[in-house]
Batch of 3 targets.
Target 1
Amino acid sequence: MKIALIEFSVENFKIFKNKVTFSTVARKSDHTFENNGESLLKTSLVYGPNASGKSTLLDALAVMRGLVLNSATIKEGAKLPYHKFLLSDEENSPIVWEIVFSMDEKIFKYSFAILNDRIFKETLVEILTEGKEKKYLVRNEQSIELFDVLKKSEDVISKTRKEVLFLSAASQWNDSLAIGIAECFKNINIISGQKNERHGGFTVKLFKENPEARAKILTFLKKADFCIDDGVIEKIELPEKVREHMMLIGNQKDIPNSVDTINFSHAKFNSEKENVGFEKINMGNESMGTQKFFDILGPIIDTIENDKVLFIDEFDNSLHPFLTKFIVDIFEKNNPKNAQLIVTTHDTSLLSYKDDFDKAQIWFTEKDKFGIGNLFSLAEFNLRNDTEYSKKYLEGRFGALPFIESL
């Protein structure tokens, strides 16, 4: 099921005490695509100092996604991810999530709140023309009302425990609308800044099983100037000590005896600089930048080919500024199905491409003296057309900079 992200909001989650809203709505331009009457951005960049909320924004969406997809399967009495804002003496305050998204020919707004160990509220409405709303679900704790096509799943109400989202339960019991929305959430890919390597296995699998994807991965590696001519998948035996270590840290019993690995071919030259063949180099011996770029190529290709939404945290980690711009350009210029890319980054070189971005694409996070995070867009500033975004940002004109005292 295809999804287009329109807005995402969260309140009282970790650093975000007050409600913050990220939006992809913008005026029509080369950076947008039309979807159900809305002009939506293909790419967005989120800047801000460390510990200001960039990763938390993605973490909040990941928690929402996880609850929608998995809360129906958690054990009775299991703990919910109740990570509220801690730097306040307010108690018993709910965490609230809200997302507005397009699914096929309709726009939905889905929201829920959790309070300690239970679902506090849950609503699903369809947004109609002129701002009107069509109700499907209204929940206040264990009081659940269903409307329209959801009414046929009234028997699921009795199966919905206090720690389970009704939408998650209904999707498990084959409600078509709930299944469609769950599929939309599955099509939101989120890459954590510290855990890019977990996506390397997906890219290797894609490289091994999909000839078209393999060709695209090699093309991107060549265009990125990694001096790679080809690549082959080979199986390697895992040493017993490695298997024992994997079982220990992963708490798994069925560790395979062998795994797929990829070897890249690099051209070799003699003293006369003549090509004399190729040398195979295992992925583990490639540079960190090559490994990071390869790891995220799988999710990038999957997102573009299947019209998904991709979030990447710490986008510029181990990547040259030209590579980050290269990836953004893929979504801006080679994206026929209008997939969306949202990244958090410190790479201010991207801001220097002023003519390649619209103000609505650039977002900032910052934290005030009370430890409260905020999120805002560059579109909120009244700027001259010749403003150099990178220079003004580093001068502190937009805020969202760390205050570092001299030693």
Target 2
Amino acid sequence: MARRQSSSPPVLPGFSYVRPLGSGGFADVFLYEQDMPRRVVAIKVLVSDAINPDVLRTFNGEADIMARLSAHPSIVTIYQASISADGRPYLAMEYCPDTMSARFKKAPLAVGEVLDAGVRIAAALETAHRSSLLHRDIKPSNVLITSLGSPVLADFGIAAALSADGDEAEVFAMSVPWSAPEVLAEKTTGTVASEIWSLGATLYTLLAGHSPFELADRAKNTRDLLSARVAKAAYTKIGRHDVPEGLEAILARSMSKDPAKRPVSMYAFAEELRMAQYQLGMPPTALEVAATEWAAAAPVNLADAAARGPVISTVNKNSRRAARAGQSSSFRPPRDDDARDSRPAASPVKAGLVGAGIAVVVLGIAGAVIFAVMGAL
């Protein structure tokens, strides 16, 4: 299949284009520099040809989910979501210069680094689950590395809501090497148990340098052959001398064919990984999970198909606020000309009386002076 050519970067107010970062099925990612505050950001832009009501709803859902969950330190931070001048929706996000996928392809990662990342990502997913959300595409390329070297989970573009009544989403999201057997068999589009499998398979990949059911002979790693091996779920040990049996057992349990035999939650999975750290003499990674009260507040509505766009403030013209605004805009301070014009006209009678009074006072003073002089003589 031919690789899709990247679209042109949009012109965005307050951002200066730098270079492309990557392309996906429905979106391209570009590096921009933001003017205020000054920083580099990754901007994910929908491809024009892919824009339709379903894709827009999915994109809006991703923006809402990331805005809600990015308070977690192990979920990539979103700064802004809007629509460009040419009509393409975009997300402005924290720029992460590396991914776990790029790292394991160079060489398998150290046990301590993998365990630390596992606890952090499990805590992020537990927070999402407590918010009644599933990620549904957990794999090494969706674990980014921040500029400070911390792993963060990204790309909630095919997330789904956990449904209490058992209803399933319509889209089956499959990154075959890291998908659970029940997802590949299309028995479910995603559950907490299937996400535990995907995280376990991701950690296995980082330690082994290849996905769990991948063979050295690339000809045997077609989608169908790989799916068949995943369906059997026959765990093969990583075989590294520095990977203890206890950690192998944790990963094997997380990738059990029977979902009921996997850890009951991401929190439980994280605690098992923390115990492995303790047994290896490593300080356990902090397990940061959002409070239940926060997670239950203001749930994200993934079915919201309402049109989105830049926010424009408006005021109802018949409201009291509009009336007050009108009064304040019609008022202006008085000018000197206004003050002179507003003085009352002088009355002729009043002017005559004032003049007579002044004359009497003047004659009185003059008489007093004359009598004073004659008395002196």
Target 3
Amino acid sequence: MTMPSGSPFDTHSGTGKLRVTRDSFKRQEIASVHTSKFCFVIHPLSLADVERYEPGAKGKGEPIIRKILEWMPAYAAVHVTGVRTPDGRETEGWFVAAPLMPEQIIAFPREEVYDRILHAIKIGAELGANVAGLGAFTGVVGDAGITINERSPIPVTTGNSLTIAAGVQSLFRGAQEMGIDAPQATAVVVGATGSIGAAGVHLVAPHVKHVILVARNATRLRKFHESVKEELPCASSATLDISAAVRQAQLILTATSSTQDVIEPEDLQTGAVVCELSLPHDVSRRVALERPDVLVTEGGNMLVPGNPRLERVREPGTEFDLNLPRRTALACMSETMVLALENRCEPYTLGRGIDVQRVIEIERLAARCGFKLADMRAFDAAITQPMIEATRRAAAERRARVPA
């Protein structure tokens, strides 16, 4: 999230009023083939996000920052240009901020949160967007986009179909890097009754020997497991005990809406692979310090085709820091871009259930548009090949010390 000129965090600004007009943006020529435009709703995931994108917030203190975010309206934060397919199609769009923290999105009255998100989408639509994406907790609140889409002036997607496609790719890429024999492995899906997790169960199961479903709500978990266990091509079980499940698994896919750590270092097997699709992160940062033998990867990142540029709206010429490598975007963002490039301005992914065929389709469309799985990252930093090799060595050394 980035604050506009006139931010309430800026003690030297004027009135702080937020005005958005089409004339505020530089327009670039679109390729000869007409494509739609997009907007994507963002929000800060932590106080560090607020301070990183808005230097004026530094030193203000957490209570003041949170209070400012409570009343601060949505605003256009970033103009995105240069997203271009190999066959010459190009799109542009905007990241529009709905400035609430995850805890505030969960705690505030639902209608108030809906209004914040809809205000952000309306700003994007006024700027020319034909389809909107919901980022992080804006895609989780309430009924996961259904009500937002019904009230929105343009179609809305959560981006979860491409997120799960990228996550499953990342999980099995990690398995290959760590030498795990996936067909003989046990996998855990944490958050199995959520929209991403439920699809993950179906997509992971064909490639492993046993899949364990984990969720917090016992009734929902039991009903979901009963509805799918006969159609899964591997053995399956379900539990509320995350720790016990993780201790049995070589592969862990996690996609929860928790604001707390759910994967702890003491529970992980030697040489395990954890792919997390959650923001904020599900995996404790203690894992990075205490378990050098475990490979953790953020699964939902894509390499964007073309030469994408993220320019701050209120500070023309200044690049927006997405805290990702150049040309890299979250898969949920990428799904919104793909829909624009393909002129598929429709509510592609909504609600708690994801159609696996839709996941397969958006994966194919993304590949056609030139989107690729991004390089591995964990704990907001790149994972290099030497680091992967060091993880393999640490796993081998730990197995030698602590035989199974």
